[in-house]
Amino acid sequence: MYKLAIISGDGIGKEVMSACEYLLDKLNLDFSFKYGQAGFECFNKNGTTLPEETVKIANDSDAVLFGASTSTPGQPSPIINLRKELNVYANIRPIKSYKGVNCIRDDIDFVIVRENTEGLYSQKEYGNKEKMIAERIITRKASERISKVAFNLCLKRGQEKVTCVHKSNVLKKTDGVFKESFYNIAKNYPQIKTEDYYVDAMAMYLITQPQNFDVIVSSNLFGDILSDESAGLIGGLGLAPSGNIGDHNGLFEPVHGSAPDIAGKNIANPCSMILSASMMLDYLGEWKIANEIKNAVEKVIADCKIRTPDLGGDSNTMEVTKAIVKELI
Question: Would you state the pLDDT for residue 272?
């Protein structure tokens, strides 16, 4: 039996999580669900965006599914803090073209590997009314660790090249360490091609030549921005899953936020949540069913019959989910 922590969060996080649970219940696998709270609604109830009980539930699970959280003014991000608590240092965001979707190209298939624990997302800020300072923390240990994840993922995916993204021409010390660490690790993978680009150039290349990339590794903020840009190449955040992987924990979530403007309307695209669950099953070693879920999602999208409004359709969240389940069983 797999022990799963379910943290729905706010807004459409609840809706896509319900859809995901519906799908998981239909699988020939044994799950036990334990539920935790996090986010804006949790803060209003409990005075914290991430209760200690939620962290304990997550730590005691085989894997964690997270929906989405709404930003709470003056409070830390629950998902960033949960990643830190679980030490899931590698954020994995696959980007793939889908047949039947208006993608910028039909041959996009790369993954962004984002360092998850430091950079500007360390949330170390201080100052006064006249000046605020944010610390950007980059360590050699974390930089080498995330580069190793990128190279190993490239091998697993059967691809040829890892691209490092940085801004070492300006951030000479911090990004200098990141770039140097990347090439230090690259020495252990002579069969894999390497290259590096400044983040501004990379932002352009993702638009002009996305087909030329396999695995992209970057620091926290750059990886976050580039992955959202990349989702725009393939039809939007509704098709963008992600996994957060550490040595002992796995946390899986759609890239989209809580989308309060459409919350409660049952029109959120469940595909990114369901694809995140597929990544979770791959992490748990259930490779066959993980691939079957991905194939079912691709089939439903390609059929162009049942799709949510973000993809130009008029179906609701559960109609799409049930169509995916029908392809599975």
Answer: 97
